[in-house]
Amino acid sequence: MINYIYDSTFDGLLCTLSVAFKEGSKFTISPGSENQIFIDSISVDIVTDKTLAEKTYIRMEKRWGNLVLQNIYKGFLYPKSENLIAFYISVLMKNSSKELALSHPSLIDFQKRILKISREIHRWHGFLRFKELENGFFYSSYEPDYDLTPLIIPHFASRFKNESLIIHDTKRNYGAFYQNKEIFYSRLDNIKTLPLSKDEEFYQKGWKAYFESLAIENRKNPKLQMSMMPKKYWKFLTEKEGDF
């Protein structure tokens, strides 16, 4: 048994999968951060090669399509899913129907992980709030449980094609920028306050007033509200500021 150790990046995982399936031996995959030692296996360190990762990605896309790649990437975002991803690919290689691959009994947990990531993405699509900055960018911050930003930004870039956007993952200290129909990523450390546009305060007051006007005081039900929208999202919502 070979235990492949990679650098915990998606490119690194793609390189590992390429090497592992090419070798054809039984294997496991471990992120380097775990520092695991297996007595009954040989450890092999995989060096991340962006060219190999890109080629592997393109081969997978041509063979199985974009939906399979989305499943693989969403699975990657969930901790300790590397070996489930490898098994998923092995099933795909043996089964002509990619639609039936996730129905394999040994992939039920993998399917649940993908669904959990998908639900989290869907929630943030609805809960992200943008603030207009002085420089013309629309800024939004959030703290997702998983590194969702590369999957979040395309949705908003598609909706607001002519705007400049920043989606800031404050938990991981980086942001996705969308400007001039291009997406790029950058570190965002030690950001405390951002200069808002002159109109932003007016918009926020208007939105809060509208939100309050819809509420019926004697029918407020905080427990039901939290069951529908967990409290972890509240501090990022303009209308809920001061309620957490």
Give an account of the 3D structure.
This protein is α/β, with parallel strands linked by helices. The chain folds into three domains: 115 residues, no CATH class; 70 residues, no CATH class; 45 residues, no CATH class. It is built from eight helices and eight strands. Strands 4-5-6-7-8 form a five-stranded mixed beta sheet, covered by helices on one side. The radius of gyration is 22 Å and the shape is elongated. The relative contact order is 0.08. InterPro entries: DNA_repair_put (IPR023875), DUF4130 (IPR025404). This is DNA metabolism protein.
How many independent structural domains? 3
Mean pLDDT: 88
Helical fraction equals 40-55%
Cα Rg: 22 Å
β-strand amount: 15-25%
Q: Biggest β-sheet: count, sense, barrel?
A: 5 strands, mixed
Tally of contiguous helical segments: 8
Low-confidence stretches: none
For the termini, the CA-CA separation is 51 Å
Derived from helix and strand composition plus strand pairing, the structural class reads alpha/beta
